[in-house]
Amino acid sequence: MKNSFALGLLQVQPELTALQTPGCYWVTCARQEDARTFIRQAVMAQQSVTLISADEKPRDLLTPDPAEGPNRIPLFSLSKSKNSLLRLETDFLRTLSSKSGLVIFNSSAAQWDKLNEAELTDWIKRMRRVLNKKQLTLLMVTSGATIINLRNNLQRYFRQLDGVAHLAFQQDSWQYRINWWYDADRLLADRAIRLVCKDDRFYAETENEKQEPLSLNDEQHYLADKIVLEGAPPLSRQWQLFDDNEQVFFRAQQANAATVIFSLTRSDYIGELAKMVHSLRRARGNGLKIVVREMGTSLRYSDERLLMACGVTAIVPASAAMSRFLTTLEAVQGQVFNRRVPASLDALTAALQPLQEKGYLRLDAFCQAVAQLISNTLLPENDKGLLVALRPVPQLKPQQILTLCKPRRFGDLVTVLDDRVILFLSSCRYNDLDKALKFIFSLSHDELFANRMVWFEDSQILAEINNIKNLTPVALQDITSAPQPTQIAAAPVEVRERQTPQPITLLPEGTTR
């Protein structure tokens, strides 16, 4: 076998971009726009290529015209049905030949979700036989918010697929993660390359960040807000205590590998703390151990994610005793921070914080907001929130339920569909659902609802949102406005016909008319 094609990624080792003939390679992307850029760059690197698309139209993928690449590109569209995907092998046999060059197949993750495990295995094996017979190289590029399901399934096809990789957007750059990749007789596996995009092309980024501290002279030093020791004096000569977090921050700007300990006493301080942590991590490198001790119950789940993304090494909850806090400090010694911290804090905050909406939304706006949040690649997969459908008891109507529903957190949304109340609880875990419902409804939810259904995986939530869109198109266009949660529905006032006054004569007592 020989390497006859390449992905076109710039400044990347040739053996990690080579495509052998015959061969079958699969690249997954969380975002459709990243898949589009990846495909266009691959097309520009070829002398001969065939493009098949089961997602957007193939002509749209090549608009505007690529600056380089072949003058003539055969374009084919594939419907999004399951049967068309299963018959693709027959189409290859009938239409393509060894002169077709590299074949790029663009598809959505939702289409592959229609195949079960046995069908996917059979499809890959049949396609592999066709590629060997026709001496073709197939590059499949699949994108979509539910890509995690396909990524997990592809791990089983090490012998059938010549390469599997994933392209993930990380706010200011992209991570190109290679599970495995065959280059002639060599196998390369478990590689990660950081990419940047310029002029509609992906380049390997030159790593110029501090990965190691310049000095380890302060590795045993502790710089802390004095409140974290609960009134105790410095524990040793290596400890320096300061009156507040700002003084800790200024001193830490000269540290290289020290342990920096911030306190968190109230929730409205999280933004300021995130700025300090982000600045230290970007300026002082990965040697610092940055610890946050929660002194009062202040942190939400989304706030924890923000602080960790900004560069915090560990967070000690308010419920942890002093002994547990000191054990955590001991555990982080010797660690080097190895996660990526994006350069733009504003963009990072906007991406990780919940939706800036709460309460009742029209059904169409509700679906749009939930789909947008689930598609956020910076939030953890299958841990973005809960979609809950609640059916009221027979004595109550959904509109009456809304008067008792008062979401207080941004990202907690509610709408009505037929006889159900639908909630989306951002950054809420399944085991916290009962607690969340208790805070949202002014009466016990057990007395308000006859039953409930819960979706917590990204694919489940998106599938249900799509079901709502597909099954109730009229409701999305002509939905009646429901009362806001803070409004009380007034009883209808009966309108009576105005009566004409009649004169009445009052007679003295004992007198008859």
Automatic annotation (TrEMBL):
InterPro entries named among the record's database cross-references: BcsE
Superkingdom, natural source: Bacteria
Molecular function via GO: cyclic-di-GMP binding
Protein name, UniProt field: Cellulose biosynthesis protein BcsE
Organism: Pantoea latae
